[in-house]
Design brief:
32% helix; two-stranded parallel ribbon; alpha/beta; elongated
């Protein structure tokens, strides 16, 4: 999914997933090669794309998987020296990596607070309601259902980490 004929050929960006949206937000006129599948890497398409642009960037989160393969194929790219190796990317980080400034977001202090909530029709709602009604101790894990700890459900008693609910429940049972 390379950019059309009206795209700027000075900058070419190879990306995939959510990072494509960030790239489009901060560099709407850049030439972009959006990868749908990254394994096996479509090196023929990447070489053709690289031949059409002056400077080639790779925007990917975490480990430089695509970047290393493209470098190994003999192409010069700009990647992790400009984009962070740890954490999640966002439009501001992508803009900074491309040498741009992202306009400041408008102030949102006048917006009403809206806490997170379970989706309408979520099956966890009914389960939490029953668990609370029965007065049971509920050990939880990390996931959207962790919202069972918050109002209006107030039904989850512990949440340590992913996969901990069974171990914590076992420990509580053993402790009496």
């Amino acid at each position: 999914d390379a950019a059309g004929d009206d795209a700027d050929r000075a900058v070419g960006i190879i990306t995939s997933g959510i990072n494509y949206q960030y790239v489009r937000e901060v560099a709407p006129d850049a030439s972009v090669l959006k990868l749908g599948m990254v394994h096996p890497l479509p090196l023929q398409a990447i070489r053709a794309f690289a031949a059409e642009v002056e400077t080639l960037y790779i925007v990917e989160e975490l480990d430089p998987v695509i970047e290393e393969q493209v470098r190994a194929a003999g192409l010069a790219v700009i990647g992790k020296e400009r984009f962070p190796l740890c954490g999640e990317l966002n439009p501001a980080l992508v803009a900074r990596g491309l040498g741009q400034e992202l306009p400041a977001a408008p102030a949102t202090s006048d917006l009403p607070v809206r806490p997170p909530a379970m989706c309408p029709g979520c099956p966890h709602r009914g389960v939490f309601w029953i668990l609370k009604k029965l007065g049971l101790t509920v050990t939880g894990d990390i996931g959207c259902y962790t919202l069972g700890v918050a109002p209006p459900l107030l039904a989850m008693d512990t949440c340590v980490c992913m996969g901990a609910s069974i171990g914590v429940a076992h420990g509580l049972e053993r402790a009496g």
